[in-house]
Amino acid sequence: MVSLWSSKQNGDGVDGQADERTGEEAPPPRSSGDYRSPEADERTRLLPAQPRPPPNDGYLDPDDPAVSPYNLWSVRFLRWLTVLFFLVTFVWWVLLLVSIFVSPPGMHSRGSGFFDFSYTTLTLGNLFVALLFYTNPSRAMRISSAIIATLLLIDVILISAVTKVRFEEGWVGLASVIWATIMAIWCLFVDRIVAWGKREEEERLTGRPETRRTLAEWIGVFLATVILIIYIVIVILMTGTLILRARDASLPMAGERYFVDGDKYQVHLACVGNVTESHGKREPTVLLEAGEYPSEYDFEHWAYNSYRNGSISRYCYWDRPGYAWSDNAPSPHSAGMSSDALSEALARAGEEGPWIAVGAGVGTITSRIFAARHPHDVVGIMLIDPYHEDLLHRLSSPGRGFVLWGWGVLSPLGIERLGGAMFKGRTRQDRVYGRNAYQSGKFIKAQLQENLVADSLSKNEVVSARAIQSQSVPVVVVSSGIKVKTDSEWEKKQEDLSKLTKNLVAWDSVKKAPHQVWKTYDGRQTMEKDLKLLVAAAAKVKTG
């Protein structure tokens, strides 16, 4: 027993010797030189054992929330400054929005005001994108911001270099575009600083800059880039519109522009023919007041033909504020204010009566107010398919006003104007006073101003004018046969206006003639015939 225990302790058991506890034959002992691996069984590891993780080196995981550029005071400070600039821009945006409808003291621009508003809206959008994607900077955003800043700088140069455009935009417009340029550069600078701060914090906290982006970050970069590309397209269109305005500013005009309303804006006035006398009396001058389009858009052509035919000896025409070569007036602006502006322009031009007031469409409201306020100078009134004061609500509907405001906001893009110039051969004349004049921001602003007060201020002024109108003044009314036939209310109001005074010379309704009666041959013939009758009747009116 002792020898057996001893041999087991020393590992010297004999090959084939049985185990005393199990009675089974024990396996032969492995020699020191036998390095064969044991046979694999169900407990054998299929993969090699993984090494233990290295000891903690003190760095954070790149996805740890603590890895943020906000750790740097400079990044936080720039963000707060961006928020401040956003709030300042928003206040300025609100002021510009209000000034379209009611001009604050000192903030009136002689242009439409829509360019100022659009530049400020663009600035708000630029700053909003910078704040929304503040901690997700990208090279695409920086390149886009640089392009926007460059285009805006070109706009600054255009507005500053072209005298007429600079006067129309005024300090408000120039300040708006300069601020938009500075903010575009600021967004570029901030994005670059945040990118630097992000890299610095990643190197400090994780040991290396992070080159990966999460799905959310890629989506943010994509959205920001798409929005900025849209901004680039917007600025390109606005720059193209400014180039057109600079070109249109060189279009020569007949007559002169005169400051009115305390030198706040200028209106265009021109006269054709010489002052003549007959039988010791000065012959009356026809004073044209256009309707829904500028006087130069074929209405003045009819007057010129009448002058050439000898039906009249002299005529003057002007552009209401916002039309053709005239600046926009401060808001609100009523028909009575237009009448006062005309009176002041005539006085500054040295023009004196007697006058025969000839108005068309909505312009007849201004003509009637002018005639009532100058009872000693107006010796005849001719109304061409006139608006009645009871129908002014058609011009002042809220829906029409909202549409006009919407078109005004879009007008700086100049999509129609640019398309017409590039693909349809539209000329400067078309854009300033012709068939495309309605696309101008100034024209839209003038229409919006008429809409806002047509059924309130303007109506009150023309009702008062009718009450004080001299009853001896001869009157001629020429109506559109189409409108009279299709609109019974319009026909009744035309008849009422034929009773404006007790001296009706003629009331004619031209068949197949549209609202702009002079666009048909019969309309022009009837208008000239009735104008001759009115001149003859005006010669019998005593002035002074």
From TrEMBL:
<dbReference type="Pfam" id="PF10329">
    <property type="entry name" value="DUF2417"/>
</dbReference>
<feature type="transmembrane region" description="Helical">
    <location>
        <begin position="114"/>
        <end position="134"/>
    </location>
</feature>
<feature type="compositionally biased region" description="Basic and acidic residues">
    <location>
        <begin position="36"/>
        <end position="45"/>
    </location>
</feature>
<feature type="transmembrane region" description="Helical">
    <location>
        <begin position="215"/>
        <end position="244"/>
    </location>
</feature>
<keyword id="KW-1133">Transmembrane helix</keyword>
<feature type="transmembrane region" description="Helical">
    <location>
        <begin position="80"/>
        <end position="102"/>
    </location>
</feature>
<feature type="transmembrane region" description="Helical">
    <location>
        <begin position="171"/>
        <end position="194"/>
    </location>
</feature>
<keyword id="KW-0812">Transmembrane</keyword>
<protein>
    <recommendedName>
        <fullName>Mitochondrial integral membrane protein-like protein</fullName>
    </recommendedName>
</protein>
<feature type="compositionally biased region" description="Polar residues">
    <location>
        <begin position="1"/>
        <end position="10"/>
    </location>
</feature>
<keyword id="KW-0472">Membrane</keyword>
<feature type="transmembrane region" description="Helical">
    <location>
        <begin position="146"/>
        <end position="165"/>
    </location>
</feature>
<feature type="region of interest" description="Disordered">
    <location>
        <begin position="1"/>
        <end position="61"/>
    </location>
</feature>
<dbReference type="InterPro" id="IPR019431">
    <property type="entry name" value="DUF2417"/>
</dbReference>
<dbReference type="InterPro" id="IPR029058">
    <property type="entry name" value="AB_hydrolase_fold"/>
</dbReference>
